[in-house]
Amino acid sequence: MRKFLLLVLTMAPLLAYSQGFQVNLEGQKQIGMGHTGTGIVQDGASVFFNPGAMAMLPENYIQGGISPLLFKSVFNPAGTSIQNHTSNKVATPFQAYAVWGPKSSFWKLGVGVYTPFGGLTDWGNTWQGKYVLESLNLKAIYIQPTLSVKLADWMSIGGGFVYNHGSVDLTRAIPLANSNGDPGQARLKGSGKGYGWNAGVYFKTEAGITVGITHRSQVNTTIPAGDAIFTVPASLQSSFPQPNTFRSTIPLPATNSIGFGFYPGSKWIVALDVNLVNWDSYKTLSFDYNTNTAVLQDTHSARNYQQAYSLRGGAQYKANDKLALRFGGGYASTAVLDGYVTPEAPDANRVYGTLGLGYTVAKHLDIDISFEYEHLMQRTQTNFESQLSGSFKTDVYIPGISLAYHW
């Protein structure tokens, strides 16, 4: 039993972020252009994409949007024709920004509230891997006050402080049946916080190309007292003390980005971004339980993630004074090495495509919509710890909408 419990409790998904939990949905215009935004100036979402570019905005902004996300994954256990599907639940990543500065000033203040990490997955309680995961609801909400300063007509810099509020609610089955034959259940639920920063520089070259460079710091997020709730037969309750709490910390990774903006005509913007995500800082997953027993011990489990990168490209065509059309796409590598893939986010290298449309509905009011389709490459794995073996196939569908008022 002790070996089993160590396995169950070393796989909580809040502490197993991967490229799959980095949702990258911080601005509708930028999503429509393939998630590019580091090297161009579009709107208040520069608070996230490049704080250095914020001072170059010609207007002030208040905007908000949402990107409902449908994650559809299928697991085929090794040696069978069985297909286990996730339920059709919709996550709701959102973004909100405000940017203000006096007219023609050399500085702007901004604040952003956005969700760079998160996940909503429900495999049910009858599937092949129910002892690894039944359901997961995960959120990381960043709040970022920001200052940007224009040093010259061709260059500006900026930076902001980041506060993260994270929460997780996870359930999985335990192979300890009650008198009716129903398995037990483990539920891990809690919230925590972390701190970091986001900084960038933006400049215009003599060739007319714009360039942005940013660094978003690692955010060490700690759950100081999450609830560990176990439903087990009465005869075993002494081995699973209630109430009980756990403490754990995860380094949400730093991201380095460089982006370029090209302007082949008065109606066109073409953008290219390259991102390097420092997942290699995530080596070990550890849990410290407030109350231990002979069965329930603190755990330390290797993760050994690797750096991940993404290549993004997109374009905007201004059809007329009111209508803008956008499209883009990209490729992102996985941070999860073979043997560490789990059903919380069955991560793999992925490709994606995006479309977007912007329309000025009134003099100072814009509406922007986007749509994204992601396809994760099929990945056949046997997890080192759970020994869950089979193939994952995953697709993600993400519509989005936002409103922006500018003056």
Layout of helices and strands:
Blueprint lengths: L1 H8 L18 H5 L13 H4 L11 E6 L2 E9 L6 E2 L4 E2 L2 E7 L6 E16 L12 E18 L2 E20 L9 E21 L5 E7 L2 E13 L13 E8 L2 E11 L2 E10 L6 E6 L9 E4 L5 E11 L4 E10 L17 E13 L2 E18 L6 E18 L1
Organism: Mucilaginibacter gossypiicola
Family: Belongs to the OmpP1/FadL family.
Protein name: Long-chain fatty acid transport protein
Overview of this structure, please?
This is Long-chain fatty acid transport protein. Residues 1-18 form the signal peptide. With 407 residues, this protein is mainly beta. The chain has one domain: Outer membrane protein transport protein (OMPP1/FadL/TodX) (Porin). Helix content is 4%, strand content 57%. The protein is built from three helices and 21 strands. It has helices spanning 2-9, 28-32, 46-49, and strands spanning 61-66, 69-77, 84-85, 90-91, 94-100, 107-122, 135-152, 155-174, 184-204, 210-216, 219-231, 245-252, 255-265, 268-277, 284-289, 299-302, 308-318, 323-332, 350-362, 365-382, 389-406. Strands 1-5-6-7-8-9-10-13-14-17-18-19-20-21 form a 14-stranded antiparallel β-barrel. A hairpin with a 6-residue loop joins strand 20 (365-382) and strand 21. The longest helix has 8 residues, at 2-9. The radius of gyration is 23 Å and the shape is elongated. It starts with a helix and ends with a strand. Residues 10-18 have low confidence and may be disordered.
